[in-house]
Structure formats: C-alpha cells, structure tokens
C-alpha cells in the first residue's frame, strides 16, 4: 500500500488536511513582514555647530577637530567624518550596526559638552541630531499654492504640516528645502550712508538698541499683582524705517534716509521647482 492510497480511500481526511494547509498558508501570508531590505539598526549622530563669519580653516581647526577628537572615543563607534564650511561645522559619528541608538546619543552628548568650553565664545551651541546616516530622505513631498507667497507657504508648513508629520511613528526628522522664512530685510545704500557721515556699525547699533526683548517683571501691592508689558520689538518696515541712526547739529538721520526696509525672505540661496513652477519640498527621514 502506497502513501497516497490512504488519502484515496479516506476523502474526508484528505479534505480536512488540505483545509488545514490552506489556513496555515493564509496565516503565514498575513503575518509575513514585507521589506525590500532586512531590518538593520543603523545609527548616525550628526553634530552641527555654527560660527558666523568664520572661515573654513578656522572652523576646521577650532571646532571640527576638537569635537571629532572628543567623540572618537565613543563606545561602539565605526568611524567619524567632519565637514567644515564657512560659518558651519558638521561632524558625523557613524555607529556600528546593532548598537543602541539612545545610549550612543547620550554618550556623544556628554563628549560634546565636555569640549564646549574650549570652543570659541562667539560660536553657537552644537546641535546634536540622531538619524540613520542616509543621505537621501525616505520620502519627498512637494507643496505648491498659487494663492500663497513663498513666505506664507513656509509659515504654514512650519506651523501646521511639519508638527503633524513629526508625530507620525517612524519619522525622525522633517527638513524643508526651498523654505523662505519671514525676515526684515535692510538694504543699505553706501552712497547715502557716506553722505550723512554714518557707518554700517551705526545702523547695527541703532537696530540692536531699539529692537530687543524685554522682561520688565510686574508690580504688586497687598491685593493686586499686575504684569508689565513693554513693546520693545519693532514689527513693521515702517517702524524700522523711523529708527534714528544719529543726530548731528540738530539733524536726525533715520534708517529710511540711508537704507531700504522691506519684509521678505531671510535667505534666497536655495530655490526649488516642481514641474517648472516654484515650490517647497519636505524631506522625511526615518528613525534608526
């Protein structure tokens, strides 16, 4: 008697066994993880430090090199790379596969804090970000709105869209390419400035002295406490234009006399287009 004779004489057993195999197959299909590549815990920690006005050589010698030496002793490190550009330093710490990203971030943070006191005083605090080390984002989203300016679209993305995407599980960072944030732009005319015996330092000093944040505190008596609010910041181009720069022989030189003031984009160095039209891109990077 062959093995197949048992199933031929007992068709009910054959049917039950076939149904069991079919059910197990369906269960395996729905429980099977679908990935293009196997899941690997890859962690890269990026340390970015800004030093406005410094050259690339100065950045390399006094910021990139000390930070790279400090983080090189981190446990489970694979390699360290650094990039120095004018006004900016970027140090990337690539961790070994399978290392704990949270432990690595904590250790790198402590190493950077240890050398913070040796960095130039005018440099900004290092910004440490944990990522996967991918040079390209997991997803790019293009946004366009013909009824909004570039500045208005950037403001909407920063206030509404970016916070919501950042809360999605698996999203580590959301970067905006082609963003144009609102900024008060002051275009100084050197000829008009020289004609009034003023300098760019006079303009900068006047702006800093008349546009600042203030916390005056409060007043109180036995029964009432009142907060004091001081409007010490200028909000419109017209208000900036009225700033006095200097006074000579009773003649007041105002900012509008030596410069053009307008509300525009903080930077126009990056431009993004989609289908031949200006737009803004969102780059979404996954968590390690």
Radius of gyration computed on alpha carbons:
30 Å
- Average per-residue pLDDT, rounded, comes to 83
Largest β-sheet summary: 4 strands, antiparallel
How many runs of DSSP E, i.e. beta strands?
A: 15
Tally of structural domains: 3
**Class from helix and strand fractions:** alpha+beta
CATH architecture of the largest domain: 2-Layer Sandwich
Notable traits:
288 residues; alpha+beta; Alpha-Beta Plaits; Multidrug efflux transporter AcrB TolC docking domain, DN and DC subdomains; four-stranded antiparallel sheet; 9 helices; 15 strands; elongated
Kindly describe this structure.
The chain is about 35% helix and about 30% strand. The radius of gyration is 30 Å and the shape is elongated. The protein has three domains: about 1-35; about 35-135, Multidrug efflux transporter AcrB pore domain (Alpha-Beta Plaits, 2-Layer Sandwich); about 185-265, 2-Layer Sandwich (Multidrug efflux transporter AcrB TolC docking domain, DN and DC subdomains), CATH 3.30.2090.10. It is an alpha+beta fold and about 290 residues long. It has helices spanning about 5-10, 10-30, 55-70, 100-115, 150-165, 190-195, 200-210, 235-240, 255-260; strands spanning about 45-50, 75-85, 90-95, 125-130, 140-145, 170-175, 180-190, 220, 225, 245-250, 250-255, 260-265, 275, 275-280, 280-285. The strands form six sheets. A four-stranded antiparallel sheet has the order 2-3-1-4.
């Amino acid at each position: 008697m062959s093995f197949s004779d048992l199933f031929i004489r007992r068709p009910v057993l054959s049917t039950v066994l076939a149904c069991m195999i079919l059910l197990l197959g369906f269960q395996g299909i729905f429980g099977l993880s679908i990935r293009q590549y196997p899941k690997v815990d890859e962690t890269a920690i990026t340390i970015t430090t800004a030093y406005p006005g410094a050259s690339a050589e100065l950045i390399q010698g006094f910021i990139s090199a000390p930070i790279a030496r400090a983080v090189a002793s981190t446990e489970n490190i694979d390699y360290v790379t650094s990039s120095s550009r004018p006004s900016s330093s970027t140090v990337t710490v690539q961790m070994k596969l399978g290392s704990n990203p949270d432990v690595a971030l904590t250790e790198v943070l402590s190493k950077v804090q240890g050398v913070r006191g040796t960095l130039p005083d005018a440099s900004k605090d290092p910004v440490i970000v944990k990522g996967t080390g991918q040079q390209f984002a997991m997803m790019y989203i293009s946004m366009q709105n013909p009824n909004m300016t570039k500045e208005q679209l950037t403001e909407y993305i920063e206030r509404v869209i970016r916070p919501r995407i950042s809360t999605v599980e698996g999203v580590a960072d959301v970067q905006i390419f082609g963003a144009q944030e609102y900024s008060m732009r002051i275009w100084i005319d050197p000829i008009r400035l020289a004609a009034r015996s003023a300098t760019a330092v006079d303009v900068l000093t006047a702006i800093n002295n008349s546009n600042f944040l203030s916390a005056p505190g409060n007043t109180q008596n036995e029964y009432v406490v009142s907060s004091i609010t001081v409007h010490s910041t200028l909000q419109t181009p017209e208000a900036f234009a009225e700033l006095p720069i200097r006074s000579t022989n009773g003649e007041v030189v105002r900012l509008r006399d030596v410069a053009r003031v307008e509300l525009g984009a903080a930077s126009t160095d990056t431009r993004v287009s989609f289908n031949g039209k200006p737009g803004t891109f969102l780059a979404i990077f996954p968590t390690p």
